[in-house]
Structure formats: C-alpha cells, structure tokens
C-alpha cells in the first residue's frame, strides 16, 4: 500500500504540459490594423498576402518582433472569387506556378511557410498541388492547409515531397459577432485540450482584434499556451526563411530581443511599432478591384451543412513530418477529375 501511495504521489507530482494553441492571422497586408495585432504581446502568426500595400513592411516588422511569418498565397477558389493577377490558377503549368511563388517569396522573404488564401478549387487538383508543394519543399518551407475544402490534396503531396504539413482546425471569425467569436474560441480551447494542440485562423477585423485583446490572457489560466505556428513542427525540424533558400540568399534585418506575454506595458513599449506613413512604397494589390476587396471581407459564406469545414467532424492534426521516402501509388498520380466543388455549393 505504501508503494502504491508513493507511486500515486509521484505521478501527481509530474509537471502538466500546457496544451498549445497557434493562432494564425490571415489576409495581412491591406490594413493599418495589422500593426495593432502585431503589438499584442502574444505569439500570433502572421499570414501575409504578397504584393499588397503593406505586405513587405508588416512582414518585416513581424520578423523583427520574432513573430512567425508565413506566405498567404492566393489560389483559385471554387467560386472564382479571387481576382488576383498574382494568384495560382489551375490552368497554369509548373513553370508559371514556380514563377508566381518565387515572386511572392521575394516580396515576403521572411516567410517560413505557406498557407492558401481561398483555394478551394486549386487545392483539390492533383498536378498543380504537386508542383506547388514541390517548389515549397525545394525552398525548405512547410505548408499549412487552411482546409477550405474537404477534398484538399495537400496531404498526399506533402508526403510525396517529404515536407512538414500542418492543418487548420478552427476558423475563429467567419461570423464576427462577439457571441460567434466566443463560441469558436471556446471550441479552439476544447480541441487543444483534447489533442494537446490546435490551430485556429482569424482575420484582421476590428472585432477579432478586440476579442483577442480581451481574451487571450485567459488561456493561461485554462492551462493553454499561445505559441508560434512553428512550435507545432517537429522539434528537430530546422525552421528556415524564404530569404535563406533564394537563388541569391538575402540578408535579413536583426530581430528584437524576445518579447513575452507577461511583460508590462512599459517594457512592451520599449520596442517601437514601425512608422506607417504614406512614404512607404505602395505595391500592386493582390486583388485589383475595390469591390472585390470589400466582398472578400464582408461576405458571409453559405456552405451546405455537410460540406462546411466548420461543421465537419473534428479535424485531427495531421502528422507533420514523414521521415521515410514516400512513393505514391498509381491512382494518386492520376490527376483528380472529381466534380468541381463549386457545383456542390462551396463559397471558398
């Protein structure tokens, strides 16, 4: 009995590891509020759309504050809603896709990974996803599947190219009301506790910023830790920036000392935010028509309940690294010719 009690006491004395939550802010590059999100003293990850008015400046500021930066690459959606001349499209060949990605990394050289902006049609197609992930793997970066379609091919080709793959579990702000944000935030907490980690995606909306500013501090008391997206990669995976793997490697600016969430306001203000006056260069927007930009931020997705990523069964985190050589079976090499997702009513 004495030994049983001793064992029980020893087990109770073991440290409890905090569940990890990575929160990715998509669509960075258009708005001044991007800088406000950057000032939050938490390890948020910034997904930057290339060739937008603030893409290079915000990515640089995030890198200097030691935040993770990933490339938020526009890809063709089922609704053909993305009008970007910089987007990846299913009609492109391998060379065109690689050129688009190369130009995007040149604008956001601080990126350590990539996720898809829209892309519900593009990510379902075999050949273009093979070429896309092949180039990302060549640049020694990882891919975060935003899961805008249940038929994404990312898993197959991440395995083929021996690259890390992460998967989004929660969209925080498809509905920007406080009640909806709170519901999704609590679902994120639930999934993180069940699986020891969760990845959520939000956007630079004023409502999202206000909610995160008010509620992120509560995660610590609930046994959760806000971490960089890269913290969910294998411990032995070497995190690399796109600048380091360019044909001509680029030099990056020095990073500020580590900032932690518990720093006081006085300490936190020691690292100034970048000046954002209009003297900074203005890049060609990724979405050319103002009406399309407004639509992108205001539309409410109308997705059949069965196909809505928010209502699918819990998406379990994907294995992020495959150490053995992967050989695709013959059916997987054959391009997917399924019914286009837009015919099923997707809005992504």
From TrEMBL:
Gene3D superfamilies: Glycoside hydrolase/deacetylase (3.20.20.370). Coiled coil: none annotated. GO terms for biological process: carbohydrate metabolic process. CDD domains: CE4_DAC2. Residues 1-18 form the signal peptide. Keywords: Signal. This is Divergent polysaccharide deacetylase family protein. It comes from Rheinheimera tangshanensis.
